[in-house]
């Protein structure tokens, strides 16, 4: 059983004994690196678009809340809660009858 440590010469021979697999490994490393770069760019674009969409939705929500606070429907529902509940119930019954189709 030999316990020789690899020398520089042995290491150089070892590196050149598998030229095809070494070339394949180098090619695969390059492909993985390119894939990583593409994935990183895509992730950055998705995060930016997600942030922009979130801000747009928040602005839209604020606008709708502002319109709701000043709407006549809200005012009527606040002043006449029983009538509003009756209207909602009646609309629900009517809609159910129409959708059943009997």
Automatic annotation (TrEMBL):
The lineage of its organism: Bacteria, Pseudomonadati, Pseudomonadota, Gammaproteobacteria, Alteromonadales. Residues 1-24 are annotated as: Disordered. It comes from the Bacteria. This is DUF883 domain-containing protein. Residues 1-12 have a biased composition (Polar residues).
